[in-house]
Design brief:
The complex is a heterodimer of chains A (about 150) and B (about 750). With about 150 residues, chain A is an alpha+beta fold. Chain A is built from 6 helices and 5 strands, in the order ββαβββααααα. In chain A, strands 2-1-5-3-4 form a 5-stranded mixed beta sheet, sandwiched between helices. In chain A, about 55% of the residues are buried. Chain B is built from 21 helices and 27 strands. Chain B is globular. With about 750 residues, chain B is of the alpha+beta class. Chain B has 3 domains: about 200 residues, Aldehyde oxidase/xanthine dehydrogenase, molybdopterin binding domain (Aldehyde Oxidoreductase, domain 4), CATH 3.30.365.10; about 150 residues, Aldehyde Oxidoreductase, domain 4 (2-Layer Sandwich); about 220 residues, 2-Layer Sandwich (Aldehyde Oxidoreductase, domain 4), CATH 3.30.365. Classes of the chains: A alpha+beta (about 150), B alpha+beta (about 750).
Chain lengths: ~150, ~750
């Protein structure tokens, strides 16, 4: 079947033999994106996070057919190396990366959150990111980066 | 949309057809940069012309005709910032701007074998090899210019890659002197190093070079790496660790569009497909029956299993005086305790992945391995090939904190590529990573001490039960084991380290009982052995301080005969606002607060770390919350202070997770904690704040920072729990169940 949707502001149409294939594989293998990442395939940890009509969703458990006609935004669509999103700027400023494999999820989750919650408290940020896992222990820097971005966006 | 699949020329095509695409770089042929391909992978068609001998400057460094410097590093950046630190060391010692240096890592055809990237040794050993090579090059270039122009070396200086005479005349750039040619120099161990007083790059918090790409989705991780015509594979794991494959059928998989075939060799069974999703579905569709293997011990009795395991040898790793006699001193008070530390998994956040290609008798493997040179040797053993016919190329993956599944995925891919002749990508699933990566083994340590009537420590004895170390320095490759191919014995790492104590006591004996067996395939995970041993040592130090009613800080200072250690602990006291008092005030209320201290001189000769943990213990639920860690840290010369802070913070937070939450679960057949629900790790709401005092000693040697701060965390938390509640935790993880049991015991005592 053919599935059409908006990807990072541009219309795309892909063919998939399996409408149940998770969106993640369409984005990574079909559309050659690298922002969303495979981590568990179970929706437990967040590196695969993308925005679906502005909401943060786990692309590893979302069937590709579910995005037909909707707007999908990935890390690549959030900002680019020459035109960084405030969160990307803040993660660089705070050096909030170790291996960086989870960072897509941290930024995409926080970006959707900051759209609706301005000037969040640290407790609110911690609660929002509770299901985004980081194994390197970069959490204290990630918190600082999100606070910095929230301030700059306020 | 433009695809980013990269067509890399084959070795033969590269040499015959695409010569114009190659740059001659200091003797090495390197493919011109292709967008989106990581630096290590770009260099796909090196020839034998490039030396990798560790005594040759050309093995480490090349200067091209534009004056750009390429550093060839056998140590690899595992997400620790090593690439940036090595760039700083190289740029500083050569006196070139930072942006002129590029690093190629872990490519067996291009980089010298600097050993496994382990043990917090990358800067300390690998970085110093690079520094010495760069100093040799700089001094040789200065000498050459001086000789050619009839002046002395003292009459020239170098800055920004230009050697200038004292007379003020126009100078000569490195590019003009040697650009594009080999240096032909042996590394000179006596080449003078730059005076740290003159450093402008080393010691600075240079921003990491990889972070912009990592926050914009433009970085190429191993999991992103693609070859043209590449096939996706998934391995079907046995039902039990030692199960044999009895029957299998891929009849249902054959219905899946894109499915190619299954490959079976003994107990190794894998499926190949044209797309990743088809491979995943095929893996689930294959029907296989396995023998009922139940060779694992009962998890509930794992400590009896460890204690009763046969030992292959007993070794004293530290000895002073005569502890056996001192333990029998008349009137002495004997204190004894047993510490245990459960099985941990690496829990890499991205499951292991590798790509392999076998063509015309040559095997190329792209892997996030921390040990590409050793991996090449292991693959040669497994596949019956000459190491020279195998090339392993590092591509950074998700963080690994020791030897996790990367090498096993590489062996899976290599086996499949050799069997099929197809370029194969193997991506492990989450349950494989949690279930099948090698584990940090269970470790048990018995402690005994004798206290004299004057409250002095007369004797200290420790006995650690550790899985033994065969000669080989590698962890068995899983594919070799499953496919019945030759392989090394299991090696758990140098886990006896830091069992010895940094305190001056009259009688000490630290003993290792090397065990013949351990339940799961063992390997090293961050601070392997050092963390478990330091947990026992520093927990027991706290117990002795309690036994004589001493302040834990003063008690340690009393036995510390090391000025750097003493300074460190005094700075820790200032940082944390430590108020001297015996541990264990017993306040009323449901939530109790306490603070605990721990100290290490890593492996008794390098990095010093002292920490104070502030915790809250809920007496009703048994939940421990770590609120804050204070860290005093002395690793000698600091290359990049922000890089050190990042590592220290990571050490603390990751080890709080390990200490409070983590334990591999298993039944008699296999690991049963195979996802993040059954093997939880620390989440944002429970992450402590971290305050750090970095002690920089530019004139000293640089020591490692990737592990030492992790090693003190479990003891500091246990000591803080005791301070809060009077309950002593001697077992990791410190789960609510264990905390409640310890509280119950403390109330009875």
């Amino acid at each position: 079947m053919r599935i059409s949707f908006q990807l990072n502001g541009k219309p795309v149409s892909i063919s998939s033999e399996d409408p149940q294939m998770p969106l993640l594989y369409a984005l990574r293998d079909g559309l050659s994106l690298r922002g969303p990442r495979f981590g568990c395939g179970l929706g437990q940890y967040g590196a695969c996070t993308v925005h679906l009509d502005g909401a943060a969703v786990r692309s590893c458990v979302l069937p590709v057919s579910a995005v037909a006609g909707l707007h999908v935004v990935t890390l690549e669509g959030l900002g680019t190396p020459s035109n960084l999103h405030p969160l990307q700027q803040a993660f660089i400023a705070e050096q909030a990366v170790q291996c960086g494999y989870c960072i897509n999820g941290m930024i995409m989750q926080a970006a959707a959150f900051l759209q609706t919650t301005h000037k969040p408290t640290e407790e609110q940020i911690r609660a929002e990111l509770a299901e985004n896992l980081c194994r390197c222990g970069t959490h204290v820097r990630i918190l600082r980066a999100i606070k910095r971005a929230a301030d700059s966006m306020a | 949309m433009r695809g980013t699949t990269i067509a890399l020329p084959s070795l033969q095509q590269g040499l015959n057809e695409s010569r114009r695409d190659f740059l001659k770089t200091g003797g090495a042929l390197v493919v011109t940069f292709a967008l989106g391909v990581p630096k290590a992978a770009r260099a796909v068609a090196a020839t034998a012309a490039k030396t990798v001998a560790t005594d040759e400057v050309d093995a480490f460094l090349a200067i091209d005709a534009r004056g750009r410097v390429t550093l060839y590093s056998g140590k690899v950046d595992l997400g620790t910032g090593l690439e940036t630190a090595f760039t700083q060391i190289t740029a500083e010692e050569l006196s070139v701007p930072l942006d002129r240096v590029t690093v190629i890592q872990g490519d067996t055809a291009l980089t010298p074998d600097q050993g496994v990237t382990w043990g917090s040794l990358s800067i300390q050993i690998g970085g110093m090899q690079i520094r010495q090579a760069a100093a040799t090059a700089r001094e040789a270039l200065l000498s050459q210019v001086a000789t050619e122009h009839g002046i002395t070396k003292e009459q020239v200086t170098v800055k920004d890659g230009v050697i200038t005479p004292a007379s003020g005349e126009k100078g000569w750039s490195y590019a003009e002197i040697v650009g594009g040619r080999d240096l032909h120099l042996k590394v000179d161990a006596k080449a003078p190093l730059k005076d740290p007083k003159d450093y402008t790059i080393v010691g600075q918090p240079v921003p990491r070079l990889d972070i912009p790409a990592k926050v914009t989705g433009t970085f190429t991780y191993m999991q992103d790496f693609r070859l043209e015509g590449m096939i996706h594979a998934r391995v079907i794991r046995p039902r039990g660790i030692g199960s044999t494959l009895q029957t299998w059928s891929d009849a249902k998989a054959r219905q899946i569009p894109g499915y190619l075939k299954a490959v079976r060799q003994e107990n190794f069974l894998a499926v190949l497909a044209r797309s990743e999703w088809a491979a995943i579905k095929a893996c689930r569709a294959v029907e296989a029956t396995w023998s009922d293997w139940q060779g694992l011990p009962d998890e509930a009795k794992v400590w009896e299993y460890v204690r009763e395991s046969d030992s292959v040898s007993v070794e004293d790793v530290q000895k002073a005086g005569d502890s056996a006699t001192a333990m029998k001193t008349a009137g002495a008070r004997i204190v004894s305790a047993s510490y245990d530390f459960g099985i941990h998994t690496h829990g890499s956040i991205g499951p292991s992945c590798a790509v392999a290609r076998y063509q015309e008798g040559k095997l190329t493997v792209w892997s996030a391995s921390q040990q590409t040179h050793l991996l090449r040797q292991q693959l040669a053993t497994m596949l019956g090939m000459q190491p020279e016919s195998i090339r392993c190329i590092y591509v950074e993956g998700a963080g690994c904190y020791g030897r996790n599944g990367h090498e096993d995925a590489a062996a899976d891919a290599a086996l499949l590529a050799k069997q099929t002749g197809l370029p194969v990508r193997v991506q492990w699933m989450r349950q494989e990573e949690h279930g099948w990566d090698p584990k940090g083994p269970p470790i048990l340590i018995d402690m005994h001490a004798a206290l004299g009537g004057d409250n002095r420590v007369l004797a200290w004895e420790s006995e650690a039960f550790l899985p033994h170390k065969p000669k080989e320095q590698a962890v068995t490759l899983l594919a070799a084991e499953l496919a019945g191919l030759p392989h090394d014995d299991a090696f758990p790492g140098n886990i006896q380290q830091s069992l010895g104590i940094p305190y001056t006591l009259p009688n000490i004996r630290a003993t290792v009982r090397w065990l013949a067996q351990t339940p799961l395939r063992p390997s090293w995970i961050r601070a392997p052995g050092r963390m478990q041993n330091t947990f026992a040592n520093e927990g027991f130090m706290d117990e002795l301080a309690v036994a004589i009613g001493a302040d834990p800080l003063q008690f340690r200072l009393h036995y510390l005969n090391d000025p750097r250690g003493v300074e460190l602990l005094r700075r820790l006291a200032a940082l944390s606002g430590w108020t001297g008092r015996p541990a264990g005030g017993h306040a009323p209320g449901a939530v109790l607060k306490g603070r605990g201290l721990a100290y290490v001189k890593y492996e008794l000769y390098r990095t010093y770390v002292g920490v104070v943990a502030d915790v809250e213990v809920n007496r009703e639920s048994g939940k421990v919350s770590v609120k804050k860690f204070y860290v005093a840290h002395d690793c000698g010369q600091i290359i990049n202070p922000d890089g050190v802070r990042n590592q220290v913070e990571g050490n603390i937070v990751q080890t709080v997770s390990r200490t409070l939450l983590e334990q591999v679960q298993f039944d008699r057949s296999r690991v049963t904690s195979v996802d993040w629900a059954s093997y939880p790790i620390l989440k944002f709401p429970d992450v402590p704040d971290v305050a750090i005092d970095l002690i920089d000693r530019p004139a000293e040697k640089p020591w490692g920072v990737g592990e030492p701060a992790a090693s003190v965390v479990p003891a500091a938390i246990a000591n803080a729990i005791f301070d809060a509640t009077g309950a002593r935790l001697r077992s990791v993880p410190m789960t609510p169940t264990k905390v409640l049991a310890a509280l119950h015991e403390a109330r009875r005592a």
